[in-house]
Write a structure and sequence with these properties.
- Keywords: Membrane, Transmembrane, Transmembrane helix.
- It is a single chain.
- This protein has 112 residues and is mainly alpha-helical.
- It has one domain.
- The longest helix is centred in the middle third of the chain and has 34 residues.
- It is elongated and about 80 Å long.
């Protein structure tokens, strides 16, 4: 019984990741300015990566508890480290895109 529940959970996580990945691509293609393109692409892409990583963690933990073996534990630990890396890079991208923006003043007139 737990096998099909885990399969359903992993399938839903991966489908949500595909959806957020599609949102990232559509945002990169359709939004007019660079700031909204970057913000949408990074946020949706990070969510897609996090969902795939969580699906990997679920699979690794289930396989470790079911079959044993050190490789599944190492896979889960590396997936958790990947999720931490994604969270840290999300924070850095937010700082770069939102907080460290260069202010734009009014256009200068040409002196002749």
């Amino acid at each position: 019984m737990i096998d099909w529940l885990l399969d359903l959970l992993i399938t839903l996580l991966l489908l949500a990741a595909v959806g957020f990945g599609a949102i990232a691509v559509i945002g990169l293609l359709l939004f007019p300015d660079i700031r909204s393109r970057s913000f949408t692409g990074i946020r949706a892409g990070i969510l897609a990566t996090a969902l795939v990583t969580i699906a990997g963690i679920c699979y690794g933990m289930f396989a470790w508890f079911s079959f044993g073996g050190l490789q599944y534990l190492l896979y889960s630990i590396s997936a958790i480290l990947m999720l931490v890396l994604v969270i840290v890079l999300n924070h850095l991208a937010t700082v770069v895109l939102c907080h460290a923006a260069v202010p734009v003043g009014p256009p200068r007139e040409k002196k002749e």
